[in-house]
Amino acid sequence: GVTREYWLSIENTTLAPDGYERYTLTFNGTIPGPAIIADWGDNLIIHVVNNLQHNGTSIHWHGLRQLGSSEYDGVPGVTQCPIAPGGTMTYRFRATQYGSTWYHSHFSLQYADGLFGPLILNGPATANYDEDLGLLFLSDWSHTSAFSLWDSARAAGPPSLDGGLVNGTNTYNCSASVDPNCVGGGKKFETVFVPGKRYRIRLINVAIEGHFQFSIDGHNLTVIANDLVPIVPYETNSIVIGEGQRYDLIVEANAEPGDYWLRSGWQAACAANQNADDMTGIIRYDASSTVDPVTTSDITITSNCADEPLSNLVPHLAMNVGNFSEVTQETLSFVFESYFMWTINSSSLYMNWSDPTTLRVVNNQSTFPTEYNVVSVEQTNPSDEWTVYVIKDESGIGLSHPIHLHGHDFWVIGQAEGAFDLATSELNLVNPPRRDVASLPANGYLAIAFKKDNPGAWIMHCHIAWHASEGLGLQFVESPSQITMALADKEAFEDTCVKWDAY
Ligand code: C2O
């Protein structure tokens, strides 16, 4: 592998992605940010400059295992101090996996205001396609900043948003608006197909809370990967995608030449407050065409916000779950004391921002604030030892939760509605789906397994942005005595925390 270097500047920028001008947060001025591209095995050096005036930040490389580099996972309060305004942090890690993912701010709700971008890691050329269209971002979108909605969100539940973006663009209808910020001029995402060619689309859901069902009128989708894991390909006419999830799709330009809608249907059952029904883009067979498609959809939007059926998501490289000695069961619940707080195992993962320097690098390793909902994972037998973890939704809220784990792909060994019972609930240990975000069904359970092979501090959280900020998470501290950190890294970390002291 070679070393690839990138520079990201975090700025607040006025943009009108859908024709409504607002304060946004951007990487190098655009939404999405610039593509970071590397080959499997490469080393990445990414310099992040915080050009915000009043807020800290930190950047997470979603789904990357950070083998031996836990300190670059980018979670403020868990693996680093936030980068102070005016500060810089250089992230260094290796691309030990390949496929489609994203980088995003992991500081509060910042990614919902625009801080997300493509991270593409090229692997062996096994998929059969002619052209790579790169990441296709699906996001919900509000005309005020997510931060400004935060107080009401945690006091009264999720606020109504204004619409959605497909790859950072859409058309909001300003014709009836007297709002001076409604400037118009948004456009639909468009791409051109050449008849007979096969296109790779790296679909990703980066919404605050939107759950989508993606389809392209008149075309089938061949699914070749979930998250960073290649799967045995399957064909479908639509795909359900939860927050933080990715699916790599091959689409063949085999329809009658014309203009076709590409649709990200809202799954109303888990984002009932959405009023957008036009989260669409356009596929054209003739680049000079400017008309709206007249195609219709023949898919039915499902309403349970479940993941794609587990039986479809068969990893290409078969791996079974190995030895584990116990099954840890934890309960997801929530409390309301003037604010919503979600809990797992009766506690919330809530950062102590009155002292953001609680995380310090001391004596060769990080310290992990113990009040931050810590679960210990200790490797005692280095050859083949696993953790099995079952999260049960007993909140009674009736929502599914996209559960994301850092530092590991996990094996999805159980996922169902209803109560979990160790004696009778079936766990699939034989080449189950592997990925880094899976849905915990409403009033049900999600059972995951992962190998204890990556010493570090790894947060696990719901990828609905409101819920993560309402404490729905915990951190696994895995084999802390084996965490290693290069001297240069330690100095970089001390530096970040010292800047906070000075700030
Ligand atoms: Cu996509 Cu904890 O993040």
Automatic annotation (TrEMBL):
Provide a GO CC annotation, any one: extracellular region
Q: Which cofactor does it need?
A: Cu cation
Q: Which reaction does it catalyse?
A: 4 hydroquinone + O2 = 4 benzosemiquinone + 2 H2O
Residue ranges constituting the Plastocyanin-like domain according to the UniProt record? 10-124, 135-286, 356-481
Superkingdom of source: Eukaryota
GO MF, one annotated term: copper ion binding
Indicate where this protein resides in the cell: Secreted
Q: What is its EC number?
A: 1.10.3.2
What are the protein's UniProt keywords?
Copper, Disulfide bond, Glycoprotein, Lignin degradation, Metal-binding, Oxidoreductase, Repeat, Secreted, Signal
What processes does the entry annotate via GO biological process terms?
Answer: lignin catabolic process
Coiled-coil stretches noted in the UniProt entry, renumbered to this chain: none
Asked if the Swiss-Prot or TrEMBL record annotates the protein with the keyword DNA repair, the reply is: no
Q: What does this protein do?
A: Lignin degradation and detoxification of lignin-derived products.
Q: Which family does it belong to?
A: Belongs to the multicopper oxidase family.
Kindly provide the name given to this protein in its UniProt entry.
laccase
